[in-house]
Specification:
Elements: H1 3-16, H2 23-34, H3 41-58, H4 60-71, H5 77-111, H6 114-134, H7 146-156, H8 166-176, H9 181-211, H10 216-244, H11 247-264
Helix pairs in contact: 1-2, 1-3, 1-10, 3-9, 3-10, 4-5, 5-7, 5-9, 6-8, 6-11, 7-8, 8-9, 9-10
Length: 265
Protein backbone atom coordinates (compact mmCIF):
# COMPACT_ATOMS: atom_id res chain seq x y z
CA UNK A 1 0.00 0.00 0.00
CA UNK A 2 1.49 3.41 -0.97
CA UNK A 3 2.48 5.76 1.84
CA UNK A 4 0.00 8.43 0.73
CA UNK A 5 -2.87 5.92 0.87
CA UNK A 6 -1.83 4.80 4.35
CA UNK A 7 -1.61 8.41 5.52
CA UNK A 8 -4.91 9.59 4.06
CA UNK A 9 -7.02 6.58 5.06
CA UNK A 10 -5.50 6.38 8.56
CA UNK A 11 -6.21 10.07 9.10
CA UNK A 12 -9.77 9.62 7.81
CA UNK A 13 -10.36 6.68 10.15
CA UNK A 14 -8.81 8.44 13.14
CA UNK A 15 -10.70 11.69 12.56
CA UNK A 16 -14.10 10.19 11.79
CA UNK A 17 -14.15 7.41 14.40
CA UNK A 18 -15.06 9.86 17.16
CA UNK A 19 -17.06 12.44 15.22
CA UNK A 20 -20.84 12.00 14.79
CA UNK A 21 -20.26 11.33 11.09
CA UNK A 22 -19.82 8.06 9.26
CA UNK A 23 -16.27 6.67 9.09
CA UNK A 24 -17.41 4.05 6.54
CA UNK A 25 -18.86 6.79 4.32
CA UNK A 26 -15.59 8.71 4.44
CA UNK A 27 -13.45 5.66 3.67
CA UNK A 28 -15.64 4.86 0.67
CA UNK A 29 -15.55 8.47 -0.49
CA UNK A 30 -11.77 8.62 -0.11
CA UNK A 31 -11.32 5.41 -2.10
CA UNK A 32 -13.69 6.67 -4.83
CA UNK A 33 -11.97 10.04 -5.13
CA UNK A 34 -8.47 8.59 -5.36
CA UNK A 35 -9.38 5.35 -7.12
CA UNK A 36 -7.88 3.16 -4.39
CA UNK A 37 -8.79 -0.49 -3.81
CA UNK A 38 -10.18 -1.73 -0.48
CA UNK A 39 -7.63 -1.11 2.28
CA UNK A 40 -7.82 -4.68 3.58
CA UNK A 41 -8.11 -6.44 6.92
CA UNK A 42 -4.63 -5.63 8.26
CA UNK A 43 -5.16 -1.91 7.73
CA UNK A 44 -8.49 -2.10 9.57
CA UNK A 45 -6.83 -3.82 12.54
CA UNK A 46 -4.05 -1.23 12.65
CA UNK A 47 -6.40 1.75 12.59
CA UNK A 48 -8.70 0.20 15.20
CA UNK A 49 -5.72 -0.26 17.51
CA UNK A 50 -4.61 3.30 16.78
CA UNK A 51 -7.96 4.82 17.71
CA UNK A 52 -8.05 2.62 20.80
CA UNK A 53 -4.68 4.04 21.87
CA UNK A 54 -6.02 7.56 21.26
CA UNK A 55 -9.06 7.17 23.54
CA UNK A 56 -6.96 5.43 26.21
CA UNK A 57 -4.48 8.31 26.26
CA UNK A 58 -7.11 11.06 26.27
CA UNK A 59 -9.22 9.50 29.03
CA UNK A 60 -6.32 7.98 30.97
CA UNK A 61 -7.18 9.84 34.19
CA UNK A 62 -10.83 8.75 34.11
CA UNK A 63 -9.84 5.15 33.37
CA UNK A 64 -7.29 5.15 36.19
CA UNK A 65 -9.91 6.51 38.58
CA UNK A 66 -12.30 3.69 37.59
CA UNK A 67 -9.57 1.10 38.08
CA UNK A 68 -8.63 2.49 41.49
CA UNK A 69 -12.29 2.55 42.56
CA UNK A 70 -12.60 -1.15 41.77
CA UNK A 71 -9.24 -2.24 43.17
CA UNK A 72 -9.69 -0.46 46.49
CA UNK A 73 -12.46 0.26 49.00
CA UNK A 74 -15.06 2.91 48.20
CA UNK A 75 -13.90 5.82 50.33
CA UNK A 76 -15.85 8.71 48.81
CA UNK A 77 -18.77 9.66 46.59
CA UNK A 78 -16.29 10.11 43.75
CA UNK A 79 -15.15 6.50 44.15
CA UNK A 80 -18.76 5.34 44.05
CA UNK A 81 -19.40 7.30 40.84
CA UNK A 82 -16.27 5.91 39.17
CA UNK A 83 -17.16 2.35 40.16
CA UNK A 84 -20.71 2.81 38.84
CA UNK A 85 -19.40 4.28 35.57
CA UNK A 86 -17.22 1.22 34.97
CA UNK A 87 -20.27 -1.02 35.47
CA UNK A 88 -22.41 1.13 33.18
CA UNK A 89 -19.79 1.01 30.40
CA UNK A 90 -19.43 -2.77 30.69
CA UNK A 91 -23.18 -3.43 30.62
CA UNK A 92 -23.86 -0.88 27.87
CA UNK A 93 -21.30 -2.61 25.62
CA UNK A 94 -23.10 -5.97 25.67
CA UNK A 95 -25.85 -5.23 23.09
CA UNK A 96 -23.42 -4.06 20.40
CA UNK A 97 -20.99 -6.91 21.06
CA UNK A 98 -23.83 -9.44 20.90
CA UNK A 99 -25.30 -7.89 17.74
CA UNK A 100 -21.86 -7.75 16.13
CA UNK A 101 -21.22 -11.41 16.80
CA UNK A 102 -24.58 -12.40 15.28
CA UNK A 103 -24.90 -10.00 12.36
CA UNK A 104 -21.33 -9.19 11.30
CA UNK A 105 -21.38 -11.34 8.18
CA UNK A 106 -24.83 -10.13 7.14
CA UNK A 107 -23.66 -6.52 7.40
CA UNK A 108 -20.46 -7.20 5.46
CA UNK A 109 -22.22 -8.98 2.58
CA UNK A 110 -25.52 -7.10 2.28
CA UNK A 111 -25.31 -3.63 3.81
CA UNK A 112 -21.97 -2.23 2.66
CA UNK A 113 -23.58 -0.61 -0.36
CA UNK A 114 -22.86 3.03 -1.16
CA UNK A 115 -26.58 3.79 -1.58
CA UNK A 116 -27.39 2.35 1.85
CA UNK A 117 -24.53 4.27 3.45
CA UNK A 118 -25.66 7.50 1.75
CA UNK A 119 -29.25 7.20 3.00
CA UNK A 120 -28.26 6.16 6.53
CA UNK A 121 -25.79 9.04 6.68
CA UNK A 122 -28.65 11.42 5.87
CA UNK A 123 -31.29 9.67 8.01
CA UNK A 124 -29.22 9.37 11.16
CA UNK A 125 -28.00 12.93 10.62
CA UNK A 126 -31.60 14.17 10.75
CA UNK A 127 -32.16 12.06 13.87
CA UNK A 128 -29.16 13.75 15.51
CA UNK A 129 -30.66 17.14 14.68
CA UNK A 130 -34.02 16.21 16.22
CA UNK A 131 -32.35 14.84 19.38
CA UNK A 132 -30.19 17.91 19.82
CA UNK A 133 -33.06 20.33 19.13
CA UNK A 134 -35.42 18.75 21.66
CA UNK A 135 -32.80 18.13 24.36
CA UNK A 136 -34.11 20.13 27.32
CA UNK A 137 -32.55 18.47 30.34
CA UNK A 138 -28.96 19.07 31.36
CA UNK A 139 -27.73 15.74 32.73
CA UNK A 140 -24.00 15.73 33.37
CA UNK A 141 -21.74 12.70 32.93
CA UNK A 142 -21.50 11.96 36.65
CA UNK A 143 -25.32 12.01 36.85
CA UNK A 144 -25.91 9.30 34.27
CA UNK A 145 -27.83 6.29 35.57
CA UNK A 146 -28.07 2.62 34.62
CA UNK A 147 -31.23 3.05 32.54
CA UNK A 148 -29.68 5.77 30.37
CA UNK A 149 -26.45 3.81 29.97
CA UNK A 150 -28.32 0.69 28.82
CA UNK A 151 -30.47 2.65 26.36
CA UNK A 152 -27.37 4.26 24.86
CA UNK A 153 -25.81 0.80 24.68
CA UNK A 154 -28.85 -0.53 22.81
CA UNK A 155 -28.62 2.39 20.38
CA UNK A 156 -24.95 1.61 19.83
CA UNK A 157 -25.94 -1.74 18.31
CA UNK A 158 -27.43 0.24 15.39
CA UNK A 159 -23.91 1.36 14.52
CA UNK A 160 -23.49 -1.99 12.75
CA UNK A 161 -25.48 -0.39 9.93
CA UNK A 162 -22.87 1.26 7.69
CA UNK A 163 -23.34 5.02 7.65
CA UNK A 164 -25.02 5.19 11.05
CA UNK A 165 -21.81 6.17 12.88
CA UNK A 166 -21.13 4.66 16.29
CA UNK A 167 -20.38 7.98 17.93
CA UNK A 168 -23.26 9.61 16.06
CA UNK A 169 -25.94 7.19 17.23
CA UNK A 170 -24.68 7.09 20.84
CA UNK A 171 -24.51 10.89 21.06
CA UNK A 172 -27.99 11.04 19.54
CA UNK A 173 -29.32 8.63 22.17
CA UNK A 174 -27.58 10.58 24.91
CA UNK A 175 -29.18 13.84 23.78
CA UNK A 176 -32.64 12.21 23.60
CA UNK A 177 -32.08 11.11 27.21
CA UNK A 178 -31.24 14.65 28.31
CA UNK A 179 -27.45 14.45 28.55
CA UNK A 180 -25.56 17.64 27.77
CA UNK A 181 -23.67 17.54 24.46
CA UNK A 182 -20.39 17.25 26.35
CA UNK A 183 -21.67 14.43 28.60
CA UNK A 184 -23.15 12.55 25.64
CA UNK A 185 -19.87 12.82 23.72
CA UNK A 186 -17.69 11.77 26.66
CA UNK A 187 -19.85 8.74 27.44
CA UNK A 188 -19.80 7.84 23.74
CA UNK A 189 -16.00 7.99 23.63
CA UNK A 190 -15.59 5.90 26.77
CA UNK A 191 -18.12 3.41 25.39
CA UNK A 192 -15.94 3.11 22.29
CA UNK A 193 -13.19 1.34 24.23
CA UNK A 194 -14.81 -2.13 24.53
CA UNK A 195 -16.24 -1.97 21.00
CA UNK A 196 -13.06 -0.85 19.26
CA UNK A 197 -11.10 -3.34 21.35
CA UNK A 198 -13.43 -6.17 20.32
CA UNK A 199 -13.32 -5.20 16.63
CA UNK A 200 -9.53 -4.95 16.69
CA UNK A 201 -9.19 -8.27 18.52
CA UNK A 202 -11.48 -10.02 16.03
CA UNK A 203 -9.49 -8.64 13.13
CA UNK A 204 -6.19 -9.56 14.78
CA UNK A 205 -7.46 -13.12 15.30
CA UNK A 206 -8.30 -13.40 11.60
CA UNK A 207 -4.85 -12.09 10.69
CA UNK A 208 -3.10 -14.62 12.95
CA UNK A 209 -5.20 -17.40 11.41
CA UNK A 210 -3.75 -16.54 8.02
CA UNK A 211 -6.54 -14.43 6.49
CA UNK A 212 -4.03 -11.74 5.50
CA UNK A 213 -0.30 -11.08 5.30
CA UNK A 214 1.20 -8.28 7.38
CA UNK A 215 3.35 -5.45 6.08
CA UNK A 216 4.69 -4.34 9.46
CA UNK A 217 5.90 -0.95 8.28
CA UNK A 218 2.47 -0.12 6.84
CA UNK A 219 0.83 -1.54 9.99
CA UNK A 220 2.84 0.65 12.38
CA UNK A 221 2.39 3.76 10.22
CA UNK A 222 -1.39 3.24 9.96
CA UNK A 223 -1.64 2.68 13.71
CA UNK A 224 0.47 5.76 14.53
CA UNK A 225 -1.37 8.09 12.13
CA UNK A 226 -4.82 6.96 13.26
CA UNK A 227 -3.82 7.28 16.94
CA UNK A 228 -2.57 10.84 16.45
CA UNK A 229 -5.62 11.82 14.40
CA UNK A 230 -7.97 10.20 16.93
CA UNK A 231 -6.48 12.08 19.88
CA UNK A 232 -6.64 15.41 18.03
CA UNK A 233 -10.21 14.65 16.97
CA UNK A 234 -11.41 13.94 20.52
CA UNK A 235 -9.82 17.10 21.91
CA UNK A 236 -11.01 19.32 19.06
CA UNK A 237 -14.55 17.90 19.04
CA UNK A 238 -15.08 18.41 22.78
CA UNK A 239 -13.80 21.98 22.44
CA UNK A 240 -16.00 22.68 19.39
CA UNK A 241 -19.12 21.36 21.13
CA UNK A 242 -18.91 24.21 23.63
CA UNK A 243 -18.71 26.79 20.84
CA UNK A 244 -20.83 25.56 17.93
CA UNK A 245 -22.85 22.59 19.23
CA UNK A 246 -23.86 19.66 17.04
CA UNK A 247 -25.65 21.45 14.19
CA UNK A 248 -22.55 21.81 11.94
CA UNK A 249 -22.10 18.03 12.06
CA UNK A 250 -25.76 17.52 11.11
CA UNK A 251 -25.30 19.76 8.06
CA UNK A 252 -22.07 17.99 7.18
CA UNK A 253 -23.79 14.58 7.29
CA UNK A 254 -26.56 15.78 4.98
CA UNK A 255 -24.06 17.16 2.48
CA UNK A 256 -21.92 14.01 2.65
CA UNK A 257 -24.94 11.78 2.06
CA UNK A 258 -25.98 13.84 -0.96
CA UNK A 259 -22.44 13.67 -2.37
CA UNK A 260 -22.47 9.88 -2.06
CA UNK A 261 -25.84 9.71 -3.82
CA UNK A 262 -24.47 11.94 -6.58
CA UNK A 263 -21.47 9.62 -6.99
CA UNK A 264 -23.79 6.62 -7.33
CA UNK A 265 -26.34 8.20 -9.66
Amino acid sequence: MPLIQILVLALIQGLTEFLPVSSSAHLILGSKVFGWPDQGLVFDVATHLGTLVAVFIYFRHELMDMAKAWLGPVASESDRQHRAMAVYLALASIPALFAGALAHDVVEFYLRDVRIIAWTTIGFGLLLWIADAQGSREVKLEQINLRSALLIGLAQALALIPGASRSGITITAGRFLGLTPDAAARFSFLLAIPIIGAAGSYGALRVTMGDANIDWIAFVLAMAFSAAAGWVCIAAFLALLKRVGLMPFVIYRLVLGLVLLWIVW
